[in-house]
């Protein structure tokens, strides 16, 4: 039965290869094939810089860039799944660190990297809480190369002034007051959101701000109790915030929602820190057109997500793959990659000088190195696997349609229970 | 093949007198095979390919749908129709089916009406018919993705003060009451989602109907007119009844497209519950959640739904061919 499935998968893969016109998967001894979805913008530039460095350090080893285009990796993951099932893995592939890799680990596709962590001194270089949150049953399976922050409140300083709000809100109650003030005093949208996923993104920041990091992290333990009054209260706040969003949000993506803040059309937007790179792209000025703080109630907590690289079982060129992992795990590699990608290094010992060009990255790195509390983003695959994440997203979507908060809470509870 | 060989062998045994003595049984079989072998060889690649890649895959999918293989790593046991039943107990699936039904009704109905109407106008002899025909057919050359991207902007649901797209046009024309939520309306948003699809396929339906109209002999119309039938009556009682085959094939072509619509939805709404349809749900289950059994179950439902459209048509056309003695 197993053999049959394998042959079917191999057949499918054969077709995919035929269709995409790339013959021959395997590879010679002197190459390393790295699979990612970094095909555009700063991500691609960062990867190119890493490749250049890798080829300098490893003369004679050819780097094969097997990047598959498509935002947040959904296309790439579909291609990867076929390769893994037919036991033709790349030498290393990109994945969001944390629970999103769980499926691969359970399927036995990944090698544990504990020895590698010990050799490279990564246990000292990375925050303890980070290693704890990416471990699966006590073992680590991936090497985080960067850190993004999910809980950032972007705001328009002049709109706040116009609405008579003194300084950015620090708690959720203050946020609600500020939203009401903006709605009354100005013509602007109080809180800009985009399509459904950005509402799920907003939800995690509200939960963290209302419950605090410990209770928030506890929510994502399988079988967690979501039927508590605390969660209900957080969801009520969530509902009030959603009342102040724009009607056409479903037709927009995160870029439009963030742009509204920089253009003075909206007062607030809660989005990950990739928005900083987007603001640079559209020429908005930090401190003038936009400014940022940790989302209300989450100061001192870093809700993180991370791109990481893995070592698949049966990697054709394991030695070269380990050299690649060494590069992306190292201080130098991370400092080459991250300023271009627009993220901060996962290591705590990075050199701040590399990040001085960007006011956002500079402040984010300082905060990261000060040792904040860590909370794993659920939407970006740190805290939960794809199934649970999809259940929550479905519940959010249904709630956006019917506005039934109680049913929403029940659905979230049910999703946690069924894990 | 073995059957025909046997038959050939049997013939040798039963009537040796009719066979030329110098011809060996092998040679006889070879001569006979000339009548059917080339034909079989010609179609066998497609029989094989269709057998494996259509019916084989359907069988594989069905087996998966009847198992509890909810993670790729599991082996999966036979669980009967459990998956088929449990889909209806969740909130997302019935909503997705409801969306698909609204979309199908509006899309098929709208494209048929508009296509029929355009065909009627062209049939009445309009100046520059060829130009109009091309114009109406042109949207078919566009992919659903491109259509979706444009209509996503046209159907922007922003309220009057920030209106863009069609809403801005309404505001500009002082028709503010027409400003609406388009596809983002929770209940009947899918009706708006059908507009781009109607725009795209009405021209195709028009071409089908136009061919149908032209296929009705002029003598029949004249006979009706002589009998004092009004022009509308000619269409109502003489032309339209003869267009039933055209109508039926249009419904089937549009219906099966509509049930499995995916690209248009992804281009306009992405993955959002407000515009969820079975095909999008299936994609999320297979490629994001990685639940093979659930994905296969949804695929089976899609197959059944399309079969409901196609099978009656096949039965009908086979019967018709028989009754016409073909």
Tell me the fraction of residues in β-strands of chain A, as a range. Answer: 5-15%
This entry's quaternary arrangement is heterodimer
> Major β-sheet of chain A, in short?
5 strands, mixed
Portion in helices of chain B: 55-70%
For this structure, the CATH topology of the largest domain in chain B is MetI-like fold
Family (chain B): Belongs to the binding-protein-dependent transport system permease family.
Domain ABC transmembrane type-1 (chain B): 97-315
Keywords (chain B): Cell membrane, Membrane, Transmembrane, Transmembrane helix, Transport
Main location (chain B): membrane
How would you sum up this structure, described in words?
The complex is a heterodimer of chains A (419) and B (326). Chain A has 419 residues and is of the alpha/beta class. Chain A has two domains: 209 residues, Periplasmic binding protein-like II (D-Maltodextrin-Binding Protein, domain 2, 3-Layer(aba) Sandwich); 179 residues, 3-Layer(aba) Sandwich (D-Maltodextrin-Binding Protein, domain 2). Chain A is 50% helix and 13% strand. In chain A, the strands form three sheets. A five-stranded mixed beta sheet of chain A has the order 2-1-3-11-4, covered by helices on one side. Chain A starts with a helix and ends with a helix. Chain B has 326 residues and is mainly alpha-helical. Chain B has two domains: 63 residues; 233 residues, Orthogonal Bundle (MetI-like fold). In chain B, 70% of the residues lie in helices and 0% in strands. Chain B contains 15 helices and no strands. In chain B, helix 5 runs antiparallel to helix 12, helix 6 runs antiparallel to helix 9 and helix 10 crosses helix 11. The longest helix of chain B is centred in the N-terminal third of the chain and has 32 residues. The radius of gyration of chain B is 28 Å and the shape is flat. The two termini of chain B are 27 Å apart. At the A-B interface, helix 3 and helix 17 of A face helix 14 of B.
């Amino acid at each position: 039965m197993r053999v049959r499935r394998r042959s079917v998968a191999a057949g499918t893969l054969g077709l995919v290869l035929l269709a995409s016109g790339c013959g021959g998967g395997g590879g010679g001894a002197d190459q390393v094939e790295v699979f990612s979805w970094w095909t555009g913008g700063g991500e691609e530039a960062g990867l190119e810089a890493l490749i250049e460095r890798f080829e300098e350090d490893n003369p004679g080893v050819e780097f094969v860039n097997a990047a598959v285009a498509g935002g947040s990796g959904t296309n790439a993951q579909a291609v990867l799944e076929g390769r893994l099932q037919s036991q033709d893995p790349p030498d290393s592939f990109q994945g969001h660190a944390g629970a999103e890799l769980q499926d691969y680990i359970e399927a036995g596709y990944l090698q544990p990297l504990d020895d590698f962590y010990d050799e490279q001194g990564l246990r000292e270089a990375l925050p303890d809480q980070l290693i704890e949150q990416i471990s699966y049953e006590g073992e680590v399976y991936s090497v985080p190369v960067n850190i993004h922050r999910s809980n950032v409140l972007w705001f328009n300083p002049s709109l706040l002034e116009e609405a008579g709000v003194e300084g950015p809100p620090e708690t959720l109650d203050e946020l609600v007051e500020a939203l009401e003030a903006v709605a009354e005093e100005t013509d602007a949208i109080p809180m800009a959101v985009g399509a459904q996923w950005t509402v799920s993104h907003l939800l995690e920041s509200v939960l963290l701000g209302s419950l605090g990091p410990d209770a928030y992290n506890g929510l994502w333990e399988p079988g967690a109790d979501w039927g508590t009054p605390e969660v209900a209260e957080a969801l009520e706040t969530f509902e009030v915030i959603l009342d102040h969003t724009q009607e056409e949000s479903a037709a927009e993506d995160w870029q439009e929602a963030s742009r509204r803040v920089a253009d003075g059309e909206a007062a607030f937007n809660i989005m990950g820190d990739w928005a900083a790179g987007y603001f640079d792209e559209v020429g908005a000025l930090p401190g003038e057109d936009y400014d940022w703080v940790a989302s209300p109630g989450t100061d001192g907590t870093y809700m993180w997500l991370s791109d990481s690289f893995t070592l698949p079982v049966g990697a054709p060129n394991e030695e070269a793959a380990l050299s690649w992992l060494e590069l992306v795990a190292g201080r130098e590699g991370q400092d080459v990659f991250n300023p271009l990608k627009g993220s901060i290094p996962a290591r705590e010992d990075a050199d701040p000088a590399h990040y001085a060009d960007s006011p956002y990255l500079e402040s984010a790195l300082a905060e990261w190195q000060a040792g904040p509390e860590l909370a794993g983003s659920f939407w970006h695959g740190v805290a939960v696997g794809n199934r649970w994440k999809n259940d929550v997203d479905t519940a959010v979507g249904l709630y956006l349609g019917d506005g039934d908060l109680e049913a929403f809470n029940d659905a979230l509870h049910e999703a946690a229970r069924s894990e | 093949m073995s059957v025909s060989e046997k038959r050939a062998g049997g013939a040798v045994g039963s009537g040796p007198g009719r066979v030329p003595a110098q011809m060996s049984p092998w040679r006889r079989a070879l001569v006979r095979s000339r009548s059917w072998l080339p034909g079989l060889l010609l179609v066998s690649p497609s029989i094989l390919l269709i057998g494996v890649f259509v019916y084989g895959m359907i069988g594989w999918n069905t087996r998966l749908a009847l198992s509890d293989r909810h993670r790729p790593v599991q082996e999966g046991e036979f669980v009967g129709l459990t998956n088929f039943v449990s889909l209806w107990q969740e909130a997302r699936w019935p909503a997705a089916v409801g969306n698909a039904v609204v979309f199908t009704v509006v899309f098929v109905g709208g494209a048929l009406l508009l296509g029929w109407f355009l065909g009627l106008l062209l049939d009445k002899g309009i100046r520059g018919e060829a130009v109009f025909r091309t114009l109406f057919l042109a949207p078919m050359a566009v992919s659903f993705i491109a259509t979706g991207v444009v209509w996503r902007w046209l159907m922007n649901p922003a309220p009057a003060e920030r209106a863009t797209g069609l809403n801005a046009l309404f505001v500009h024309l002082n028709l503010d009451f027409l400003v609406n939520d388009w596809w983002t309306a929770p209940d009947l948003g899918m009706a708006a989602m059908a507009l781009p699809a109607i725009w795209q396929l009405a021209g195709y339906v028009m071409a089908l109907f136009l061919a149908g109209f032209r296929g009705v002999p002029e003598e029949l119309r004249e006979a009706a007119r002589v009998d004092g039938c009004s022009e509308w009556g000619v269409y109502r009682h003489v032309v339209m009844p003869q267009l039933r085959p055209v109508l039926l094939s249009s419904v089937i072509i549009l219906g099966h497209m509509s049930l499995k619509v995916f690209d248009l939805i992804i281009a306009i709404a992405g993955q959002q519950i407000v515009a969820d349809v079975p095909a999008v749900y299936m994609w999320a289950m297979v490629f994001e959640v990685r639940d093979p059994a659930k994905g296969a179950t949804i695929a089976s439902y899609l197959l059944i739904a399309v079969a409901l459209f196609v099978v009656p048509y096949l039965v009908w056309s086979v019967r018709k061919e028989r009754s016409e003695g073909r």
